[in-house]
Amino acid sequence: MNAIQKYFKYRQSLIDQYAKGDMTKREYLQKNYEAVVYGDIGPFRNMDTVEKALFNYQYYNALAKENKTISTTRDMDYELKRDYLEKSNYYYSRKDRATLTALRMLDFRGVVAYFVKVRSRLNMNCVKWVSIILFGCKFHMDMHISMGSLILQAKIQQ
User: Fold this and answer.
1) Helix (H) or strand (E) holding 84
2) How confident is the model at residue 149 (pLDDT cuts 50, 70, 90)?
3) By the 8 A CB rule, do 70 and 36 touch?
4) Sign (positive/negative) of CA torsion 153, 106, 117, 92?
């Protein structure tokens, strides 16, 4: 078992623990963050396999979520808060690139995608992101992308 496979096995065990109620969502996110950031692998500059692209998706998603969470700290200086949000957006864009790379390698096959409606105080029924479920690789994953992402733009251009 290679390092990527070990990571995804560990990640699945975290998901199972979360699903059973043995850990909170915040604990799950923190442990996943620690696994991708302090682990032995990634991010990969050359995403030449679907597995590497999916690991990069997890890596950048964890960094984006962590920076977004930090940005919500009370009494934080506005400039610092903005810096964390900018980093979060940067990491989300890197996550979207990794997703597009994986989808292109799969030739958009073995993929199911659907729009997810999110209720918020600002927009009661806005479509906020697209959920993409990959069946065409070793790792079954549910991935989320924002509506303005380059993945939707790339698929529309095809």
Assistant:
1) helix 78-105
2) low
3) no
4) negative
Tell me, what amino acid is at 145? I
C-alpha span between 117 and 2 (Å, rounded): 37
Region of residue 107 (phi > 0: left; psi between -120 and 50: alpha; otherwise: beta): left
Q: State pLDDT tens for residues 72-125.
A: 888 889 999 999 999 999 998 899 899 889 888 888 777 777 666 656 554 444
Contacts of 24 (CB under 8 A, 6+ apart): 18
**How far is the C-alpha of 151 from the C-alpha of 101, rounded, in Å?**
9
Cβ-contact 11, 32 below 8 angstroms: yes
